[in-house]
């Protein structure tokens, strides 16, 4: 109730801002206002409108309206731009005391190359003049795609293989064929140009765990490869930057309500306006959401919300000071692999387990209470799921020092408490006979299996398995500061900057194994040996605290960078960038006694016989220093206003990840930074009918780390080289009432220098094998039709080629397709929409079980499918 009152109180404050007399300080003389319309007469929200000679700019509200106050009498050029439209310019003249109304008409383009982007560049550049592969989406495009999560939105970007099967959070992104343990290991997710957290691949803290899409988002810019290593740390694969809405003179707001066929209740609100006309602006918004999840857990799977905002003070000459803040308190269920079977290559569910909606995450496994080594009890609550509480505050300052020099500084301080609880499969599924012989070293006739809740005997044909409750507590903080000087030395634009960041991640793990019957909403089992009278479970817990971990990782980054753009001619622009990283990583790790302790608390019970504990053992302290150069060079040639091409070479790196430090803390000599070399050739063309962005790339990676945590608590701890050659293509077609977006990626990621010896002494040679979990081909096709002026329909088709679970390429994950569709209808200031995902309940496998490679039941295996069919309904009002 306390959290609910906090949200209600904040929402009340936001509504109070609505009634604030924002014209209190206004002088409403000499105003220019109007609407931005497309070529079919429909208003265009989110369009950029500026008065060239004054430097004033604004964004149209949800009704396509704009307004400027206090415009000095004179003659000006007013400019309107928006993604997917040609730039519109018009001369206007305004007299003293006049209120001038000017409507602006945008002519549709398939995709505008004149759109200005700021990510991965020292100075804002149009797409046409940028020598990087970049995908952008404005607020309207994001809403039209109706993504169920941040990861779901990123699936639209070519070159990024995104697994969104984990639910709203904790998903994985593989950039340009770089295999990893998952998370966002080679890209950086940013919020207004600074990372949501410095390292996006910390254990059980994937970057999307700390970011939520809502009505405060203005735009998304995603750079692939290219200059990313110059403008972000550990991000040779790319930068994904979410840009927030800011305020303007006119008060405007948007409220949205969303429900679904899986019990969603979600409210979104965003408000913006002026506290002092032309000087002080605000934007504040957020959401509250509760739902049962697409996969049925038996409890409220997702529950929580976010408050986010900024206040901007504008000086003269477009200088500004902006203060921003965010508070996120959200709980999300995380879905892991489930049991499936293959019928002549066709993936099917097993009896009693729905492959589209079933999950091992069950209300029956919610409460864990187990005795601990040294006394006391450990408790965990599965219904907390992945529960981050985030508080961040920051500021951004831009000041033009002279006609040639501009200074900019931004900082952010972030504190995160993460309480993580999820059910991970661990071994099996077993037949009861296989479990008896391979786990308990007896015969099935000697064991009795019964349900914990009612004592009923288990069907002798039913499968059983371990379902672990993995509990992780992480305390995280990050202070990041980036300042730069921009020198306009026509024809050279030079940026020099210094980036500082310090961060810490302290973590504690306590993992316990349940024994369950294999079914939807699995139930706990007890197992007793009839011949000896020994119990092998305690209230369904088969192994008490089989893994305990206590560790910490800290990073201290001191980096300098420079970037230069040289306009050799009107058509030819050169770019060169350089970054030097002087970084220090340090921390400690436990030296746990693994499976070594017998608590001796449970009589005639093996559940407490092999406890792992960190108590009584010393810690290992470690330190790892990084001194690395990253560099890039490119040339972009503009053939005309519709076509350009570029070539780029870049060298970047990725520091060892958290698990590598833990595994090798006693001897860090085997650790090396992952070196990434890229060559890119790009081509861009756009007309009013058709556009294409094509990027041919080659990536060479040395010393890629593979550090998946296995079911026995150990890590792979293997290293290899990877080479990939690929082609990314993004096309857009616009004709009359039809729009078509088509993206595809074709690539060939292969291992090199990947030989060695397994833990059991056997040799392996994976040279030439395809990188795990990376398809060689995947695509997205999205046609849209304006049935009427106000009614639009779309279909979203995605296809992913086959891929492999592991490096040995033995377990194939078959190719699959997914189809979604939707309708949206606009009536005045209301928008109604229905959106459906996975319409045909495809069983598409995004991963196998990277923690387990074998199964005793030969026809049953573990894998994680995409979420089942789901419908969402929404209504939004603009005011």
UniProtKB/TrEMBL annotation:
Subcellular localization is given as: Cell outer membrane
Record-linked SUPFAM superfamilies: Carboxypeptidase regulatory domain-like (SSF49464), Porins (SSF56935)
> How does the protein associate with the membrane?
Multi-pass membrane protein
* UniProt keyword Signal, yes or no: yes
The main location is membrane
Q: Which residue ranges does the record assign to the TonB-dependent receptor-like beta-barrel domain?
A: 373-839
What InterPro entries does the record point to? Beta-barrel_TonB, Beta-barrel_TonB_sf, CarboxyPept-like_regulatory, Plug_dom, Plug_dom_sf, TonB-dep_rcpt-like
Question: What are the entry keywords?
Answer: Cell outer membrane, Ion transport, Iron, Iron transport, Membrane, Receptor, Signal, TonB box, Transmembrane, Transmembrane beta strand, Transport
Q: Which residues form the TonB-dependent receptor plug domain?
A: 127-239
Signal sequence extent = 1-26
PROSITE patterns, alphabetized: TONB_DEPENDENT_REC_3
Family according to the record: Belongs to the TonB-dependent receptor family.
Name by which UniProt lists this protein = TonB-dependent receptor
Which organism encodes this protein?
A: Flavobacterium azizsancarii
């Amino acid at each position: 109730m306390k959290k609910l009152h906090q949200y209600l109180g904040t929402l009340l404050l936001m509504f109070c801002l609505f009634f604030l007399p924002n014209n209190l300080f206004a002088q409403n003389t000499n105003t220019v206002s109007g609407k931005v319309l497309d070529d079919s007469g429909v208003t265009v929200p989110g369009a950029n409108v500026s008065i060239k000679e004054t430097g004033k700019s604004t964004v149209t509200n949800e009704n396509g309206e704009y307004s400027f106050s206090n415009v000095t009498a004179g003659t000006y050029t007013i400019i309107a731009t928006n993604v997917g439209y040609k730039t519109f310019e018009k001369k206007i003249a305004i007299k003293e005391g006049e209120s001038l109304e000017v409507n602006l008409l945008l002519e549709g383009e398939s995709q505008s190359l004149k759109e200005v982007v700021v990510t991965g560049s020292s100075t804002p550049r149009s797409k046409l003049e940028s020598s990087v592969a970049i995908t952008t989406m404005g607020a309207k495009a994001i809403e039209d795609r109706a993504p169920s999560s941040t990861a779901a939105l990123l699936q639209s970007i070519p070159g990024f293989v995104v697994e969104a099967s984990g639910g709203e959070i904790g998903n994985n992104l593989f950039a340009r064929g770089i295999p990893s343990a998952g998370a966002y290991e080679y890209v950086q997710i940013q919020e207004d140009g600074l990372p949501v957290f410095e390292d996006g691949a910390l254990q059980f803290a994937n970057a999307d765990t700390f970011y939520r899409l809502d009505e405060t988002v203005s735009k998304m810019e995603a750079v692939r490869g290219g200059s990313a290593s110059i403008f972000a740390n550990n991000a040779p694969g790319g930068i994904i930057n979410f840009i927030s809405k800011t305020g303007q003179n006119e008060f405007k707001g948007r409220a949205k309500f969303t429900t679904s066929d899986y019990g969603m209740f979600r409210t979104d609100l965003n408000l913006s306006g002026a506290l002092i006309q032309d000087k002080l602006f605000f934007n504040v918004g957020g959401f509250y959401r509760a739902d049962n999840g697409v996969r049925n857990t038996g409890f409220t799977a997702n529950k929580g919300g976010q408050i986010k905002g900024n206040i901007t003070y504008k000086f003269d000459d477009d200088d500004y000071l902006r203060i921003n803040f965010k508070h996120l308190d959200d709980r999300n269920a995380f879905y892991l692999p489930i049991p499936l079977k293959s019928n002549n290559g066709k993936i099917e569910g097993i009896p009693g387990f729905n492959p589209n909606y079933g999950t091992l995450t069950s209300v029956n496994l919610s409460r864990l209470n187990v005795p601990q080594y040294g006394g006391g009890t450990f408790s965990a609550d599965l219904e907390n799921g992945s529960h981050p509480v985030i508080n961040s505050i920051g500021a951004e300052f831009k000041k033009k020092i002279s006609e040639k020099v501009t200074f900019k500084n931004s900082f952010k301080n972030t504190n995160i408490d993460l309480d993580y609880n999820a059910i991970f499969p661990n071994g099996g599924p077993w037949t009861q006979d296989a479990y008896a012989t391979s786990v308990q070293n007896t015969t099935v006739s000697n064991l009795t299996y019964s349900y914990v809740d009612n004592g009923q005997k288990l069907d002798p044909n039913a499968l059983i398995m371990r379902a672990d409750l993995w509990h992780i507590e992480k305390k995280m903080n990050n202070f990041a500061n980036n300042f730069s000087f921009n020198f306009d030395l026509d024809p050279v634009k030079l940026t020099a900057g210094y980036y500082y960041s310090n961060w810490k991640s302290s973590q504690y793990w306590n993992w316990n194994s349940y024994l369950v019957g294999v079914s939807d909403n699995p139930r706990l089992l007890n197992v007793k040996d009839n011949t000896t009278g020994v119990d092998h479970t305690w209230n369904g817990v088969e192994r008490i605290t089989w893994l305990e971990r206590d560790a910490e990782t800290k990073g201290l980054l001191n980096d300098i960078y420079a970037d230069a753009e040289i306009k050799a001619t009107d058509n030819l622009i050169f770019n060169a960038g350089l970054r030097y990283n002087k970084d220090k990583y340090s921390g400690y790790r436990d030296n746990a006694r693994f499976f070594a302790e017998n608590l001796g608390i449970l009589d005639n019970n093996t559940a407490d016989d092999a406890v792992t504990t960190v108590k009584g053992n010393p810690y290992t302290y470690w330190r790892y220093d990084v001194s690395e150069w990253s560099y890039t060079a490119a040339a972009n040639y503009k053939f005309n206003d519709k076509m350009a091409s570029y070539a780029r070479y870049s060298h970047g790196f990725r520091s060892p990840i958290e698990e590598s430090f833990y595994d090798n803390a006693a001897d860090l000599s085997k650790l090396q930074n992952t070196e990434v070399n890229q060559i890119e050739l790009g081509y861009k063309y756009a007309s009013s009918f058709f556009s294409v962005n094509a990027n041919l790339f080659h990536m060479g990676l040395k010393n890629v780390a593979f550090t998946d945590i296995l079911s026995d608590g150990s890590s792979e701890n293997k290293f290899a080289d990877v080479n990939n050659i690929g082609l990314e293509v993004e096309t857009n077609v616009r004709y009359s009432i039809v729009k078509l977006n088509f993206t595809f990626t074709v690539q060939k990621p292969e291992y090199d220098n990947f030989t060695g010896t397994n833990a059991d002494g056997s040799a392996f040679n994976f040279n030439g094998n395809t990188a795990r979990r990376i398809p060689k081909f995947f695509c997205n096709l999205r046609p849209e039709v304006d049935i009427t002026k106000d009614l639009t329909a779309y279909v979203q088709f995605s296809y992913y080629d086959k891929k492999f679970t592991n490096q040995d390429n033995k377990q194939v994950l078959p190719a699959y397709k997914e189809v979604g569709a939707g309708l949206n209808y606009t009536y005045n200031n209301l928008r109604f929409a229905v959106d459906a995902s996975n319409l045909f309940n495809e069983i598409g496998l995004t991963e196998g079980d990277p923690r387990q490679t074998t199964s005793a039941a030969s026809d049953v295996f573990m894998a994680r499918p995409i979420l089942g069919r789901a419908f969402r309904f929404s209504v939004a009002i603009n005011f």
